[in-house]
Amino acid sequence: MRTPRTRELAASPDAYIASAPKAAQPHLRQLRALIRELAPKAEERISYGLVGCFYPTRMIYFGGHAKHVALYPAGDAQGLQKYLYGASTLRFPLDEPLPVARIRSLVKARVTEYEAAARAKRTAKGARRSASARSES
To answer: What are the Cα distances from residue 2, in Å, to 5, 8, 50, 127?
Structure first.
């Protein structure tokens, strides 16, 4: 049986970042601040042993490792291909500054995507209510 890492047991995003490798902590704080700035209504919580930002559902996750910090899921990683690992994970080496402008663009796109989905859901719900009101008349 695998022994859980300390960060997987973290009760909060603050505890997760504090328990991450020291070299990863500045990058994690920078990612967190960027996501908070662009998605102030997003709720942070620990999920899958990472910091997850939910807006209103799973929007983006980030985590710290010994040699990199990661952002999941990457979504449209345009301009970030050199950091792409697998289908939807971005890995940023700790010995490089974060590509903030590109990450900002990616997070903005995720927020826009989630806001559009929420609007569509509200519109569909309103249309169903209107249709049921017409059928009752």
So the answer is: 9, 12, 17, 50
Overall average pLDDT of the 107-133 stretch: 77
- Confirm if 61 and 74 have CB atoms less than 8 A apart: no
CATH 3.30.390.50 fits 6-132, yes or no: no
Q: Distances in Å between the alpha carbon of 1 and those of 4, 7, 8, 46, 49?
A: 9, 17, 15, 22, 17
Per-domain residue ranges of the chain: 6-132
Global pTM reads: 0.80
CA gap 120, 123 in Å, rounded? 5
Instruction: Report the distance separating Cα 94 and Cα 68, nearest Å.
Output: 5
pLDDT number for residue 129: 61
